[in-house]
Amino acid sequence: MLFNSFAFAVFLLIVFAFYWLLPHKYRWWLMLLASYYFYMSWNFKYVVLILFTTIISYVAARLLDSQNDKRKKKVILVTVALLCLGVLFFFKYFNFVSDSLVGMLGVFAIQLDPITLNILLPVGISFYTFQTLGYVIDVYKGGPAEKHFGYYATFISFFPQLVAGPIERTRNLLPQIKQKHTFNYEQATYGLKLMAWGFFKKIVIADTLSKYVSIVYDSPQNFSGFALVLATLFFTLQIYCDFSGYSDIAIGTAKLLGINLMTNFKSPYFSQSVKEFWSRWHISLSTWFKDYVYIPLGGNRVGKLRHTMNLMFTFFISGLWHGANWTFVVWGGVHGVAIAIENILVPKDKQKSNGLIRWLRIILVFVFTSFAWIIFVSNSISGAWYVITHWWLGIMSPESYLKQGFFGIGLEKIDLVFLIPSLIFLLIYDYISLKTDVILLISSKKIFVRWVIYIIIVVWILMMVPVNNSGEFIYFQF
């Protein structure tokens, strides 16, 4: 059940109505049943996996809470980590590891056929696995273990953020699930406005760009020159609007139920460094790796060489989290190298500036992240290398270079008519949001002004729905 579907609209309307009609003591039942129904709408049989992960982590946390022996606590933690990550490995990485091992042995003239499994990747498995692990690690470190299994199961399966985050922390979401809520009109309307903005980014921008990205990156060898540049730029904008759009819809949906999820994006393309980019992009994942991988390894409290190794390891693992392909590993490594270089060349007190230097840095980081997305979106390392080595062909004839790019990917004028103003709108929104909450800002305007903006956005979305035939969100595959 996609957020951008009629089925979800009906589902949410029913859940919203019953949630506020039911007494507080029954609401967790409704949220749990609704969340499991939501998940089973993707693939009924894979509900067993989330239930298994939930039970294992719940039991482990209760055992940790009652155990004082440090050695036994460590055994419990390692056991539950192996079980949860084992499920993730089996469904997401088994074929990748099998193919990689066979490929490595082939270098030494050892020929074997890879063992592959014909299984589908369960939607959201990377997200809820990390959420359960974060909870267990918190309990291991001395945090409280939730005794009520229903509350805990609802925390893990909470449908707005189940399949693509934000990856919530226990201290934020679990207490809210247990808390008695009263309907707040301002919070609910804020949620609806945030959802509308998320749908705008997904349907109007991301889905329009996706067809051109697919045309080029499905067969990059058929293109060269500016077509590759244009497709890369389109993907840079597409993945941001697609994923941040999902996060906005998820956060807005939760607000309709009186629950506040963590912010997952903060205008990342206005970052002045790669390090700042990762403090603004997919914040729930970057902070998860920081707290549960980077800092336990020693973080920056060690020597420079060890610090760099900790940084690189964290980004390699982060890249692998995104998918079972060497492209993701290399993509993560490229970001790790960039931050390591920044740490060496740019002192902490000079990593931000104002005026012209600020904008030059923003442009530089945008170009770098766009370059890195080439590796991310490509189907293989060789495909990424082709794009990197062929984007400049014909650049010495600028007019021909640009025309071949636009005509080469079949860019339609009607799409440009919608894209140009929508991208300008996105740019203005993100820039203003660096200093203030845009939704609250619009809400403070006179009724005529704000309703004109609301109507334009809603009509814009409705106009583009049949045109783009909106599909799955990109991060569902992770």
List keywords for this structure.
single chain, 478 residues, mainly alpha, 2 domains, 0% strand
What would you say this structure looks like, in words?
With 478 residues, the chain is mostly helical. The protein has two domains: 6-182, no CATH class; 187-272 and 352-477, no CATH class. Helices cover 71% and strands 0% of the residues. It has 19 helices and no strands. It has helices at 6-21, 24-40, 47-65, 70-107, 125-140, 149-157, 170-178, 185-217, 226-256, 274-280, 283-294, 304-322, 326-345, 355-377, 381-390, 398-408, 413-432, 438-443, 447-468. Helix 8 packs across helix 17. The longest helix is centred in the N-terminal third of the chain and has 38 residues, at 70-107. The radius of gyration is 23 Å and the shape is globular. The two termini are 17 Å apart. The model has no long low-confidence stretch (mean pLDDT 89).
Which geometry do the CA atoms define?
Answer: globular
- What does the largest sheet look like? none
Proportion in helices: over 70%
What's the number of extended β-strand segments?
0
Number of helices, where a helix is a run of at least 4 consecutive DSSP H or I residues: 19
Helix-and-strand structural type: mainly alpha
Q: Can you write the helix and strand succession as a string?
A: HHHHHHHHHHHHHHHHHHH
